[in-house]
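User: I would dearly like some help making sense of a protein record. I have put the entry right below:
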Amino acid sequence: MSDVNDPLDTLDDAVAATAFRRLVRHLRHRHDAQNIELMGLAGFCRNCLADWIRDAGYDGDKASARELIHGMPAEEWKATKQRPATPGQIEAMEKSLSMNKPDLR
């Protein structure tokens, strides 16, 4: 969802798509940036991006959307790239999520 008269809405779709793909490729490369840390800092993660592409009209199911974003099946990503979350990371994530606008949850 966008704010009324948000200049972002004037951004050419091709430019936006290119930037989105660059963001996803960056996150695929930066496995050290854990989802829980992204959630704690910014209130979104790779899985959120997968949900957002489905909300935007992607025809695939949740698993295929996550595979698209992660660059591999989500279960493989979890097994090979994801570290266990610490209590502090979970607390930071919960606090960060509480600051999200309702349409971004």
Remarks:
- The CA atoms of residues 50 and 66 lie 5 Å apart.
- The chain has six helices and no strands.
- The mean pLDDT is 93.
